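Hi support team,

I submitted a single chain yesterday and got back a structure, but I'm not sure I'm reading the token output correctly. Could someone confirm the output below corresponds to the sequence I sent? I've pasted both exactly as they appear in my results page.

Thanks,
R.
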Amino acid sequence: MQKQWRWLFGLLALMSLTFRAAAVDGFQTLNFTVDGVARTAWIYVPAGAATNRTPVVFGFHGHGGNARQAAKSFALERQWPEAIVVYMQGLNTPGQLTDVNGEKPGWQAAVGDQGDRDLKFFDAVLARLKQDYAVDARRIYSTGHSNGGGFTYLLWLARGEVLAAVAPSAAAAKYAKQLKPKPAMIMGGTEDPLVKFAWQRLSMDIVRDVNGCAATGEPWGPGGTLYPSPGGTPLVTFTYPGGHQYNPASPKLIIKFFKEHPGATGE
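Hi R., thanks for writing in. Yes, this is the structure output for that exact sequence:
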């Protein structure tokens, strides 16, 4: 009997630690079924989001990453605690540069790829948020690193009408010329051995042209360069002498940029 009680107390203590950890994290997990497949997302929801018009920021992990890791490294909610912040979980996906057999989680690379499962997942998450909270449809944003940055480019292409601004990191877009003007911040390390910086630079140059930006930039900081646009769709570039790793300075700059651009149609 004493062993049973000790076992029960131990279980209760473990449950208590688990609940405290969840409370400290400040996230809730939302479950979805998209085309018969179970999907999950980590959601940070600020107080008052059910009644106050609240911006939404999506943050996408890279290939081989996960939502929990993205929440830890991006920590966007710390920079904008008044926003709903969403870290969606990818599924095993063939990589464009690594993991060609698709043994690690990631995101679809193009419209129509993987049955558009991730675009549909994005739609489902956003619809749930609009159902449960007072989402400010004019202030919905996307950022991501590596494959997650590529998916942010894809959202710009396929769901651009709902996004106020985007901020891909360590990514390139083969279809950049098809994009429609939108405020964008693009980040990358000049020594990136995986997504070559030349590819990233080409995407920056095309986006600057698509957005109708000035050819000459001006300081936007710290460390960024702003290319103004008379149409209200500027480009900010943030380049640094680093590799493919996520730059810890990025989240603060991303949120600064997003706050400066609250203007999507939201339809």
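A quick pointer for reading it: The chain has a mean pLDDT of 88. Let us know if anything else looks off.

Best,
Support desk
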